[in-house]
Amino acid sequence: MVSYGMGAAAPLICAGLLLAPLGCLNEGHAPDPSPTRIRSCTPASEGYEGATSLQAPTFSLPAGCRILEDDGRVAIFRRQVVEVTDSAALAELCRQSETIPDAGLSPFDGGADAPMIDFGAWRLLVVRIPDTTLPSWVVSRGNEVILGESSAICTGIDPKPRRYLQLVPRTATITFHLCEPEGCEEEG
Questions:
Q1: Half-sphere exposure at residue 185, Cβ-oriented, CA atoms within 13 angstroms
Q2: Model confidence, pTM
Q3: Is 37 exposed, middle or buried (0-12, 13-18, 19+ CB in 10 A)?
Q4: Residue 121 DSSP class
Q5: Which H or E element spans position 41?
Q6: Is the dihedral of CA 102, 106, 108, 109 positive or negative?
Q7: By CB atoms within 10 Å of each CB, which of 4, 16, 102, 164 scores lowest?
Q8: By three-state DSSP, how is residue 84 classified?
Q9: CA proximity to 127, closest of 73, 177, 88
């Protein structure tokens, strides 16, 4: 099961975006001309100090599979997740990716000796997110796997996508946690 909630720390749209492209306008404050710094986004800082780092195995994708490439034809403003639970679904996803022109991204390479995915124990998440969001950490707590992501700017919106892959245990519940950068406090 995948939970798509972003939690209480979701990035907020800042007022005055068109007037202040380099920062957020908070009530009574001038925009900071320097780029917004990403605040610490760690499991401990986000309330997951009791969780342990997920130790997923390295893996290989089938030869010629380009599922990390994206031609940017579909603008996105939220996370999109494709769950791959067996070899047939992975082969179909790889087949669909053959029609995508080179987007300048390297195919995933798990290493020369990395095995194919053991779908009896794991499932593969193909996560597509706005360019302003970065994968940061993955921890487990009981049967829950939490994927921490950091937003790079306070608006959190840029339709140019990026993708990342994550193996998670087949029976795990998945939660995505999005950290908020500094300088984007809620107004009003």
A1: 7
A2: 0.70
A3: exposed
A4: T
A5: none
A6: positive
A7: 102
A8: strand
A9: 177
Structure tokens at 21: 């492209």
Tell me the C-alpha distance between 186 and 188, whole Å.
7
pLDDT at position 182 is: 67
Token pair of 79 as six digits: 């996370």
The structure tokens 């939220």 sit at 78
Residue with structure tokens 């990716």? 97
* pLDDT exceeds cutoff 50 at 23: no
Other C-beta atoms lying within 10 Å of the C-beta of residue 14:
22
SS3 94: helix
- Residue 174 Cα to chain centre, angstroms: 12
- Are 133 and 161 spatial neighbours (Cβ–Cβ below 8 Å)? no
The answer to whether 41 and 148 have CB atoms below 8 angstroms apart is: yes
Report the side by side order of strands in the sheet with 133-141: 2-3, 173-179, 144-151, 133-141, 52-53
The amino acid at 144: E
Three-class DSSP category at 82: strand
Query: Using one digit for the tens of pLDDT, what is the confidence trace for 62-95?
Result: 887 888 876 666 667 778 899 999 999 999 988 8
And the tokens for 144?
Answer: 């829950």
Residue 136 is which amino acid? S
Place of tokens 């193996």: 167
Q: What is the largest CA-CA distance in the chain?
A: 57
